Amino acid sequence: MAITRVGVVAKSRLSAATPHLVDVEQWLAAHGVAAVFETATAALMPPDGTRRVADKQALVSEVGLVLVLGGDGTLLSMADCIVRAGLNVPILGVNFGSLGFLTEVTLPELYPALEAALAGQAHIEERLTLSATITRAHAAPTTDIAVNDVVINKGARSRLIDLSISVGDGLVTTVRADGLIIATPTGSTAYNLAAGGPIVQPNVEALVLTPIAPHTLTNRPIVIPSSSSVRVKPMMDERDEVFVTLDGQAGSELHAGDEISVCRAREPMRLIRPATRSYFEVLREKLNWGKR
Predict the structure, then answer these.
(1) Was domain 130-264 assigned CATH 2.60.200.30?
(2) Which member of 72, 144, 240, 258 is catalytic?
(3) Cα–Cα distance between 190 and 195 in angstroms, integer?
């Protein structure tokens, strides 16, 4: 299906993106494609009463492609909106950040990548995502989506926390640590990597469980099938502060008796990547991976 509308989102208050946003608007118009700008993004541009503007959640339901100018955090925010809405809209991320594993396209590659996407010739990768449900004793369960990771960790004033971890119906372990990361392959190069977890190639059907600063060295990261359901129950008392965070974007405080269930979400993230670079080239470029 031909793409007739492109959503455009820039990192919040990224004034350096302004001339590029204006150029993108003109380029899309010249190619017969309507642009829909996210509300805060439109505020970076010169006023125009004819410009189509929408908030993030409304934007993703109106367009066939989302263009992100910013860092991985901006892209994750939009990916979460798309997956939460159950849509299959692809994302093209252009790097204005410092690292950019997901916003991998460079500025010189912007228009060739856009042209390929509009022509249906772009290289699109489907990345598995996570669904996390919090079950509480006296409240309805709540469910949200993550692309990178679900993190259960202690508050700033808390001591180490005890977490009971099960996969399927079987207990894996009870870990005493600062917390636990449940990461997708996409998220394996984010917090998981900083916490000593393994790098997992994005097309591998797996999840990673990585304890954060565990009390004993016997608690090591483990890789499990992506079809697995993970259940985590904090073993708390009134002194403990425990939080769950999804993609560093949203989260909530947990209470005694709460349980977090994490499984593969129904909808993947669809990420447009340059066909000119392999995943391992990105690792070498961004992380100096394997450099001597």
Answers:
(1) yes
(2) 72
(3) 9
pLDDT tens, 140-197?
A: 899 999 999 999 999 877 689 999 999 998 999 999 999 999 999 999 999 999 999 9
Which of 287, 269, 169 has its CA nearest to residue 228?
169
Contact 261, 132 (CB under 8 A): yes
Cα-flanking dihedrals φ and ψ of residue 71, to 5°?
A: -110, -175
Domain boundaries, the chain: 5-128+268-287, 130-264
Strands, sheet with 130-136, edge to edge from the N-terminal-most edge strand: 139-146, 130-136, 259-264, 230-235, 161-167, 170-177
Distance (Å, rounded) from C-alpha 201 to C-alpha 269? 15
Order of strands across the sheet with 65-70?
52-54, 34-38, 5-10, 65-70, 91-95, 269-273, 123-127
72 is catalytic: yes
Two tokens, residue 142:
């709540």
Kind plus residue range of the DSSP H or E element containing 180: strand 179-183
Sheet of 149-154, strand order:
222-225, 206-212, 179-183, 149-154, 242-246, 250-254
Cβ distance 183 to 207 under 8 Å? yes
Over residues 32-71, the pLDDT tens digits come to: 999 999 999 999 999 999 999 999 999 999 999 999 999 9
The residues with which 233 forms a beta bridge, in sequence order, are: 164
Q: What is the CATH number of domain 5-128+268-287?
A: 3.40.50.10330
Which contacts of 103-106 are long-range, i.e. CB under 8 A and separated by 24 or more positions? 103/68, 103/70, 103/71, 103/72, 103/74, 103/75, 104/273, 104/274, 104/277, 104/282, 105/272, 105/273, 105/274
CA distance 166 to 149: 17
In whole angstroms, how far apart are CA 63 and each of 57, 92, 248? 11, 13, 25
